[in-house]
């Protein structure tokens, strides 16, 4: 079997199993089995697979057909133009979370931002993307999961950011050593009844009955964790904008708060900027 035939065959099986983006997935798996780049794959499409390569590839396709996400099979996912190591201890970075990074970078052009905290960092994709794009900042990346912090550690090292992105284990804002200028978080916000069957850790997705348990908890812990003109950027899900704005408004009545939608028109990021110090909530 040559590479072209291998692609066609696996694309057909993936399609039969209702897997979206079957062409992309087949290509990712074949490149992983052969350990080759995209360019190498497509310039030598008629190259024959060895029996071992064929076996390896079939095994990868089998895992994908059984429901394992391709990012876990290959150990990679691209986010904000960079490659990240992922495993089943962490949420697979989503393209829509790039809006959170965009918003943070945009803010850093307008306000002095020296210290950032990424709460619930998972594989570290957001923390690393911010540190790469904002070279003057220090980023504290926290997570309650030791296994997730291990993954984030690999990514921090891979991107040469040891020392600039500091990993802290703990719940929500508790591990922060000092107030920061910006808090970003892609906390779990999926309703417990709507968790996707992706094999991703529920700890990274489950936001309780209404999806807002974790976000509400973070809002309640903000006091003393932001510098006087500090900001918060939270990723949210469909239809959660209004509820999150009122949660934040209750804690910080005088802050400036807005909701931004993603390319699909879905509420995706809530931004909060302190104007004066806030009241206790
Ligand atoms: N965007 C993810 C999803 O829809 C959820 C991520 C999260 O809970 N933070 O599956």
Can you describe what's shown?
- This protein has ten helices and nine strands.
- The chain has 281 residues and is α/β, with parallel strands linked by helices.
- It has two domains: 69 residues, Ubiquitin-associated (UBA) domain (Helicase, Ruva Protein, domain 3); 185 residues, 3-Layer(aba) Sandwich (Rossmann fold), CATH 3.40.50.
- The strands form two sheets. It has a seven-stranded mixed β-sheet with strand order 5-4-3-6-7-9-8, with helices on both faces. A two-stranded antiparallel sheet has the order 1-2.
- α1 runs parallel beside α4, α2 crosses α4 and α6 packs parallel to α7.
- 39% of the residues are buried.
- Glutamine binds next to loops.
Outline of this structure?
The protein is an alpha/beta fold and 281 residues long. Helices cover 38% and strands 19% of the residues. The chain is built from ten helices and nine strands.
What's the overall geometry? elongated
Poorly predicted segments:
none
Just name the CATH architecture of the largest domain. 3-Layer(aba) Sandwich
Number of helices: 10
Count the beta strands. 9
What is the third-level CATH name, the topology of the largest domain? Rossmann fold
Total discrete domains: 2
Largest sheet: 7 strands, mixed
